Amino acid sequence: MEKRALIAFVLSLFVLLFWEYFFGLVRTPEKPRQQESGVVAPAPAETQPKAPPADLPPPVAPDAIPQERSLRLDQHFDKWTLDAPLYQAQILAPGARMNSFLLKGFRQTVSPDSPPVEMISSQGSGYLPISVDLLHHKAWQLSTTPFVSQVPPELLLSPGDPSKSLSLVDEIPGQVRLTKVFTFSPESYAVDLDIQLRNLSPEQLTDQMGVSFFFQPLSEAKDESSYNKSQLAAYEKGSLKSFDVSELAKKETVLKSPLDWVGYGNNFFLQALVPIEERGYDVIPRVLDAAKGLLQVVYLTEPFEIEGGQEKTFKMRLYMGPKELDYLKEAGHNLVDAVDYGWFSFLAKPALYALKWLYKYTHNYGVAIILLTILIKIVFWPLTQKSFKSMQAMKKIQPKIAQVREKFKDDREKLNQELMGLYKTYKVNPMGGCLPMVLQIPVFIAFYRMLNTAVELRHEPFIWWINDLTAPDRLHIGVPIPYLGGIPVLTLLMGISMFLQQKMTPSSGDPRQEQIMLLMPIIFTVFFINFPAGLVLYWLVNNILSIVQQYWINRQTT
Predict the structure, then answer these.
(1) Distance from the Cα of residue 548 to its chain's centroid
(2) Which residue, of 90, 339, 433, 527, has the greatest Cβ tally within 10 A?
(3) What domains lie within the chain, and their CATH numbers?
(4) 506-526 in b/e burial notation, b at 16+ Cβ within 10 A?
(5) CB 405 within 8 A of CB 415
(6) pLDDT by residue (tens digit) across 169-191?
(7) What is the mean pLDDT of residues 264-270?
């Protein structure tokens, strides 16, 4: 019975890992949706915004929203560049659209001479974000006409400086003036954006505005890993909903206000739109190029009216940067929940802070992982000790259990009574070896999720050939190895350690169960072969510590 419980535990853990690999581990539960279509359910009737007045034009259908491309990027445009401690941002005159947002602290690849990460990933496809369209006056072409500014083309933002604003203006003479005001902070990846619309005519202006954002994977869509997949996400009232490109391509999706934020990113980076208004807008995502993973996300206002000589301002916040908890929390609007550890966030986030604290002293995240694994093992040492001792006790009474099973094999009820009496006589808990390990599952899952999504570990080396703890471990020997490319040394060591641990575990005496348990190291080795090196390192160290503990207990009981 003890061995079956242990097998059930290991298989359950394997199923959890399998589910994470193919479908993503447990997500934050969604709020019930009131519609079966791709449209997010609207707010209850009592909180619905009032219908627009009858003299306003009808709302524009989502498929009528323009898909403006930029002019050729090899042409010369006026541009404004802001150099901040964390990033360098560039805005082009046509449409006052953002052309570049380079993260100074992050490289595209692990190579030391690799260029910085470019958050405007749609740049190469010719689509630039923050494109503004007045949907009932498309001839004005505000999304592509040149904007002007009184500020110099080069701006510098030093540490400790106050926030700095960049104002760009475009005008249709006698009709409308559009002003975009970008506000940058030196120590934040958040950028505030005010879109000011002034009616220059004496007549009332009625219209509807669409602000388009364009997203694309930071790497080629075909090169994306199932462990680090780019997705669109929306956060509303404590619920995080993710959308695959394939899902968005199949059905029209409209995200109803109010929304905390709508974002696009992978495990490590996030581009987010934060609406400041509580209501009066929809957010409409649609796929422009499924092969490239190119998305257009439109912030669509309700129809509005502006009296002659009056002005209307639309406010929003943008976040373009790493998924670092401190920066996300500082940006507000629940952006910190973009780091999704599922049900075990209450364990994963403290583990990340502990890992960062250890890194301050070790200056090596691989060493920090080892130390944190040791600390976790110490915390669970009494439970594991109890588990191993229970297994040893079960091993000693296995002959008596076999006798009882043989004697009462035809009387199930009597068999259970005799077994319970046997356990009571020898003071053995048949589940004592399994339950302590089951209690460790949440910690393992939380640690697994944290290490798989921690941008702090991205491109961080450990020792020798392991130069990126978020990439699979490969030792390249000059000869290409099919499928793998190199030798997964850490993974093989992990499999060996798991095999040794199984050999040291007390036997149940059942040959079939022994064979199953000895297969588990092989299964786990194959399964872990493409896991990030940081995860494999954690599992390897945990196995080694378990072997040491098992060896100590075996010596005490012999």
Answers:
(1) 35
(2) 433
(3) 2-20+348-557 (no CATH), 28-58+124-146+159-339 (2.70.98.90)
(4) bebeeeeebeebeebbeebbe
(5) yes
(6) 999 999 999 999 999 999 999 99
(7) 92
Show Cβ contacts of residue 141 under 8 Å, excluding neighbours closer than 6 positions. Answer: none
Which DSSP category does 485 fall into? Answer: S
Beta bridge partners of 305: 206
* C-alpha closest to that of 271 among 70, 156, 468, 129: 129
pLDDT in the model for residue 4: 46
pLDDT band for 251, please (50, 70, 90 cuts).
Answer: confident
Order across the sheet with 154-156: list the strands: 116-118, 97-107, 87-92, 79-83, 154-156
Q: What residues contact 525, with CB distance under 8 A and at least 6 apart? A: 491, 492, 494, 495, 498
Q: Which of 294, 284, 286, 273 is CA-nearest to residue 123?
A: 294
Question: What is the length of the chain?
Answer: 558
Residue 377 has which token pair?
């093992």
Counting Cβ atoms within 10 Å, is residue 475 exposed (0-12), middle (13-18) or buried (19+)? middle
* 533-557 helix and 511-528 helix, angle to the nearest 10 degrees: 150
